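Reopening: structure tokens for the 5-O-phosphono-D-xylulose complex, inputs below.
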Amino acid sequence: MERYVLGIDLGTSAVKVSCLDHSGKIIDQEKENYPVYNSAEGFCEQNPNDWVQGTLEAIKKIMIKIRNLAKIDGISFSGQMHSLVILDKNKEIIRPAILWNDGRTATEAKYINENFGKKIVEITGNKATAGFTLPKLLWLQKNEPNNFARIRYFMMPKDYVRYKMTGKINTDYSDATGTIMLDIAHDCWSNEILNFFKVPRYYCPELVNSTDFIGFPLHEVCGKTGLNQDAKIFAGGGDNAVAAIGSGILNSQNILCSIGTSGVVLADEKSPHTPYEGTLQMEHHAIPEHFYSMGVTLAAGESLSWFKNTFFPQKSFSDLLSMAQESNLGADKLFFTPYINGERTPYSDSFIRGSFTGISNTSTKNDFCRAVIEGITYSLQDLISIYEQNNKTIYNIISIGGGAKSKFWLKLQADVFGKNIVALKNEQGPGIGAAMIAAMGCRWFKDWNSCINVFVKYNEIIAPDPHNTALYQKYYHLYHKIYNSIAPLARAATRL
Ligand SMILES: Nc1ncnc2c1ncn2[C@@H]1O[C@H](COP(=O)(O)OP(=O)(O)O)[C@@H](O)[C@H]1O
Ligand SMILES: O=C(CO)[C@@H](O)[C@H](O)COP(=O)(O)O
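Re-run output (same inputs, fresh job):
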């Protein structure tokens, strides 16, 4: 009987479960969508039980397809980072999860940076921004003190799903760094931070490595999904760490560009001591003693989703990309800034909002589509520029996430960035990375490089067109100025 591994990617728009064999061949991929609730401007919440239900449903679909042919050897996870899940002493959910792109905690993030000073970067590798977990706990202390007092455990999304599958509560180092409560150099929760901000130590889950074996699926989980009871479940990691594995970015001068709900530009780092001083995030990798830095655009793919759902609900993403292709480079001088949820890197500004600039009496629907795609890509160039300003050598850019499904967008990325773009044969980097963690946990491979050589499969290089890159540099130069022009207006609008 064949043996497979499952990689569970708990994204923001959907859970995607990938089933792979020993040769890295994808046997099946299943996806279950779930909603994000925006109960107030800037608020983004999800129901953790939607994640569990979606995950079990996707696994069930895979198990039906492979029934009698194969068993699952190992399972692991990649999960949206920073989102806060809180459980009471009975391990029941206290309130909906507050997500990584929720902007309500700007005041708390500012309080942390002003009152803890440079130490927050020294200890955690990160400055506080609204999306991180600690500011959310401080928001609860102030705004929902009863809920805060009831907390027995906090955790991140994939930790909750794993708890419901195994009955065990813990988190791994890559997700723990994203809380800004972990001492990144000493691999432990920082008592100094916890004491200063009055977060009880017992709220923090036990720390484990991403490849650590956590347990077997609970009896009821096997009943609901058809999973074999001896499938080993491994901890997994934050989605960007796991995506870096799934894209083969390890000890490499390639960088990662992900267009999922968020947009991420990520580089492998040898140590947590980088020159970025909190401008870029610094995170523990899902591989022990490895680190990575990254910049995050809060609403990359989400801006396109918002645009589609608001103006073209009947059309598909592919339709919108085709419309964009009908417009010209520069979208007839129409610019879009994707700040619909505020922005994290490089501005860390929860109050900024999206904009269209340069609408003329010749602007077409196609121009609007193209402006959205170009605006998202310029916001990723903002992240690449931080690496360039710090003289980071960038070889190829590995492009993943839903945005990498479009060849047109991949070429547009190459032209805007002026760099070679390489897509994975299957764009689901985090799901493949999670399956690789399971494969390593099951000891299918002797080391990570052997695993990468078998599981990571690239398409051909897409090279930039120098003429287009020269034009895009001029457009990007103007795009980059829009933030400072609209920031005072966005601030004033909050006072209306
Ligand atoms: N065919 C497509 N072409 C280009 N972009 C797409 C396509 N399908 C989806 N997308 C983009 O991908 C995003 C979802 O990417 P995904 O990696 O699945 O996100 P997440 O992991 O955050 O749930 C959507 O918001 C959309 O903008
Ligand atoms: O906040 C971050 C990383 O710091 C986001 O990248 C989240 O981890 C969500 O990822 P996607 O749902 O876009 O994959």
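Residues 79 and 348 are 22 Å apart (CA to CA). The chain is about 40% helix and 20% strand. Marking as resolved unless the reporter disagrees.
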